[in-house]
Specification:
- The complex is a heterodimer of chains A (about 280) and B (about 575).
- Chain A is α+β, with helices and mostly antiparallel strands.
- Chain A has four helices and 13 strands.
- In chain A, strands 6, 9, 10, 12 and 13 form a five-stranded antiparallel β-sheet that branches. In chain A, strands 2-1-3 form a three-stranded mixed β-sheet, sandwiched between helices.
- Chain A starts with a helix and ends with a strand.
- By secondary structure, chain B is mostly beta strands.
- Helices cover about 5% and strands about 60% of the residues of chain B.
- In chain B, strand 10 and strand 11 form a beta hairpin.
- The relative contact order of chain B is 0.10.
- The chains are: A alpha+beta (about 280), B mainly beta (about 575).
- At the A-B interface, helix 1, helix 2 and helix 4 of A face strand 15, helix 3, strand 17 and strand 18 of B.
């Protein structure tokens, strides 16, 4: 009888903790009315996504990033790096999206646990020093967290082609929102990406010959770890940096986009403070 | 933290000086694994940091325990140097106190604090445990109280946060359970029947950051049907009992988890462009029913098991995947095979939906001959979209038919033979969508010859026939043991008939398939409680499983050194 009383007490004690809670409100992002009036100086988030044509779950990660780019137009930027085991093309593939720069970037940022994997402004959301996020279902929250932060520097990218049309000149304008200490070493990495390339991609169990690849990394113009911004960065004063690279004949200039990311490059941090992007003149 | 440990140990040494009649006990164990990597592009042992530039990796765990006057105190030092245990494709380096604990029993009350391993029932709703080959260590960093209501009834409660390497998850966990025992005795005092009932409950409360991530994910869903709720608190309850009557023993456990948002890789969501994309958060409750009935009599043992699981992916962070953040342990429903080829395809437990049966029969005909029959059948519960829109419902995941005999020919010779047939869903288990199930036939034989009282020779020969994955294999092993210290083994796993369609298969420069050997040489030395090993290994990529928890392991090429010591 005494044991039964203990048991009853136990049941009651625990059941009391099962009271209803106030569920969190899910914001209606689709209800946003300002999607067409995005501040060009708003915080940007760069997603460096590691993928491969034989990576069966990678299209879902790409779908997610495309959705985020539609929800936050102009604020979410993507570089899609084909590297690792699953990036080896099929024999039927028309293109090989792997690049030495992409492999180098994977080494620089740390090997993914699996594919797809991505960095969200290279911020170590979960474990100190680990910036690769293997669970793409976490990216939405991380992007939203980053977008809530105020930028300390603005990045604007404008591109031009020479008269022969084979050399890209990118002018990156950096305008600090606040003074940046002289002892703070900032770096800039410039990426060349190409979108809307149709070729094979494994999508679930379907080897899709007409998959449209977007934001594929073609080249890193700077060093893999970025070039040191060896200029004084004062609030409101714009600094111009110029980069040139060849426009490969294999690329479609109408689909080329140049992205620039300003970031740290220290043992403990590669955090991207701000990014910007611009297409080639049409 | 270090000052705290120093103080605690100092306290016990003071006790030692002041009281001579209680003898303090000091014990511990060491496990150390060191790997020296040698690149081998043919078998795919390449393109990870260890092969590219690091060339060396190590893992070590040193556990020290001290017991005195009812106090148990322990500390464990963990070390990972260039380890690929956490990420098989990467390198992990960290070291520090991986665990500490204090236990004290005061009359009927037990108090524990620190990193605690424990479980409720069979672990379906809660299990904190360590599994080093998979680097699973989800100890609860918190406090636990136990109370002996009577000699046969015990109540327990705990609260804390889950360990994540040298850090903690932010979500809070709490739980309680009651276990009992009752026996109906005969007049002569023997048991007529016994029951061991129990009831447990566990709750997890998400931290704000994790909830924000869930909310932000749900808010990106573009259609109303995809938008779901989210709750901070999830509750799991389980009731279980073991009934023993005569030669029969029957264990049954039922568990229920309240609704929460969790990731379902098979659920479809609609993208902003209107297309279907698999994988989204869903909100649902879940349950597990598990039962095991066994019969044991002289020479005969029969065991029947059944399990059904729905929506029981229970994690401290619902957005985690693979082996991370697990709060529980679902019993595996297939045989644990010890021979190399039969163990190659082991089904991983499916927490989202699974129905499984297993039967195991062992019979000892006489002193010389015994046999074991085993069968298991596992199906997926629910449906999922495959390919370009087809839907599979309750599809087959795995079945196995197994038979083994052991014949002790005489005092010197012993022969074991066996046959295994399996059907293994590599679409689900190996994430190879569209690939047909792996069907294998694997006969094997083992001969043990006792040369003398201290020397023995053991030989294994195994064959696996399959058209899928890597294709067919042959495995041979010879092991020579010189008791009590030395053991030498040489083995080879040979891809005798590779599968042309396998994209992972080793190929020559002209693209033709290569039949590859995967040799291994081992030397073991044991002295009292110390064991040393050194092995040269070529290992094909595969799945490493322990208790139904699995993960993909890349190929290995190099030397492994191991030390195990208990003191």
């Amino acid at each position: 009888m005494k044991n039964f009383q203990y048991l009853l007490f136990f049941f009651l004690a625990f059941s009391l903790s099962s009271c209803d809670e106030n569920m969190p409100e899910i914001p209606c992002i689709t209800c946003r009315t300002d999607v067409n009036n995005v501040d060009p100086d708003a915080k940007k988030v760069l997603v460096e996504k590691f993928t491969g044509v034989k990576c069966t779950n990678c299209p879902q990660a790409s779908d997610l990033v495309e959705d985020l780019m539609a929800i936050y137009p102009g604020q979410v930027l993507e570089v899609s790096i084909h590297s690792g085991f699953f990036a080896k093309p099929y024999t039927e593939s028309q293109y090989d999206f792997r690049t030495d720069d992409g492999n180098g970037l994977e080494q620089f940022l740390g090997a993914p646990v699996g594919y797809p994997s991505g960095t969200i402004n290279r911020f170590p959301f979960e474990t100190a020093g680990v910036i690769q996020i293997g669970e793409y279902n976490k990216w939405s929250g991380m992007v939203a967290t980053e977008l809530d932060k105020e930028p300390i520097i603005n990045v604007k990218v404008e591109n031009g082609l020479n008269t022969s049309g084979n050399t890209i000149t990118s002018t990156v304008e950096l305008t600090p929102v606040e003074d940046i200490d002289d002892n703070t070493n900032l770096y800039i990495t410039v990426f060349v990406t190409e979108s809307n390339i149709t070729d094979y991609q494994l999508d679930g169990s379907f080897k899709n010959p007409n998959y449209v690849h977007k934001h594929v990394l073609r080249e890193i113009v700077t060093d893999i770890g970025g070039n040191l911004i060896d200029r004084e960065l004062l609030r409101g004063e714009t600094v111009e940096l110029t980069f040139t690279t060849n426009l490969s004949s294999d690329w479609n200039p109408d689909e080329i986009e140049i992205l620039a990311a300003v970031h740290f490059n220290e043992p403990g941090s590669k955090y991207i403070l701000q990014a910007g992007a611009g297409k080639l003149p049409q | 933290m270090n000052k705290f440990l120093l103080f605690t140990f100092s306290l016990f040494f003071c006790f030692q000086i002041s009281s001579a009649q209680d003898v303090p006990r000091f014990s511990g164990n060491l496990e150390l694994n060191a790997n020296f990597y040698q690149e081998d592009t043919l078998i795919g042992a390449t393109n990870i940091p260890q092969y590219d530039r690091q060339l060396y990796g190590a893992d070590a765990w040193l556990q020290l325990n001290y017991a005195y006057k009812g106090f148990d105190v322990g500390v464990r030092f963990d070390l990972f140097n260039n380890s690929n245990l956490l990420n098989p494709n990467g390198s992990y380096t960290a070291q520090g106190i991986g665990r500490w604990y204090i236990n004290k029993k005061i009359n009927k009350l037990g108090i524990s604090a620190g990193y605690l391993y424990d479980q409720i029932g069979s672990g379906i709703i809660y299990r904190a445990y360590e599994l080093r080959p998979l680097l699973i260590d989800n100890a609860l960093y918190g406090v636990r109280l136990t109370y002996d209501l009577t000699p046969d009834w015990k109540i327990k409660a705990f609260t804390g946060r889950q360990k994540r390497q040298f850090d903690l998850y932010d979500s809070a966990i709490r739980g309680a359970n009651i276990d009992g025992f009752y026996a109906k005795t005969n007049e002569d005092g023997s048991f007529k029947w016994t029951i061991a009932p129990g009831f447990g409950a566990v709750a997890r409360t998400l931290d704000d950051q994790t909830m924000n991530a869930i909310v932000n994910t749900i808010s990106t869903y573009s259609v109303v049907e995809d938008s779901i709720g989210a709750k901070f608190n999830v509750y799991a309850f389980s009731a279980y009992n073991t009934l023993s009557v005569g030669n029969f023993s029957w264990f049954v456990e039922g568990a229920y988890k309240t609704g929460e948002a969790f990731f379902n890789p098979f659920a479809q969501r609609t993208t902003r462009s209107g297309e279907a994309s698999p994988g989204k958060l869903v909100f649902d409750d879940g349950f597990v029913i598990y039962s095991s009935l066994s019969y044991a009599a002289k020479g005969l043992g029969i065991s029947l098991e059944y399990k059904k699981t729905e929506n029981f992916d229970f994690r401290v962070d619902p957005l985690e995947s693979l082996n991370r953040g697990l709060m529980n342990f679902l019993p595996p429903m297939s045989r644990i095979n010890t021979f190399r080829l039969p163990a190659r395809y082991t089904p991983a437990t499916q927490p989202l939906g699974e129905e499984a049966f297993q039967v195991d029969i062992r019979y000892k005909f006489n002193k010389k001959l015994s046999a074991n029959l085993n069968g298991s059948y596992i199906t997926f519960v629910g449906d999922r979209l495959v390919g370009t829109g087809a839907r599979k419902t309750d599809e087959l995941l795995y079945w196995e038919a197994f038979a083994e005999t052991l014949y002790k020919i005489n005092r010197k010779w012993q022969l074991k033979t066996g046959l295994q047939l399996i059907n293994y869903n590599q679409d689900i288990y190996l994430s190879k969508p569209g690939k047909p199930n792996v069907e294998t036939i694997a006969p094997y034989a083992e001969i043990l010859y006792k040369i003398s009282r201290k020397k023995a020779l053991r030989t294994e020969l195994q064959y696996m026939n399959t058209q899928e994955e890597f294709g067919s294999w042959v495995f041979g092993l010879v092991e020579f043991t010189m008791a009590p210290h030395w053991s030498f083994a040489i083995s080879d796993m040979y891809n005798i008939d590779p599968n042309e369609d396998n994209e992972d298969a080793p190929r020559a420069s002209d693209g033709s398939l290569k039949k590859v050997h995967y040799p291994r040489f081992d030397i073991f030395y044991a002295h009292k409680a110390n064991r040393f090993s050194i092995s040269y290994v070529k290992q094909v990529q595969g799945i490493v499983c322990a208790g139904g928890i699995c993960r993909l392991e890349p190929a290995f090429s190099g030397v492994k050194v191991g030390v195990q010591s208990t003191f």
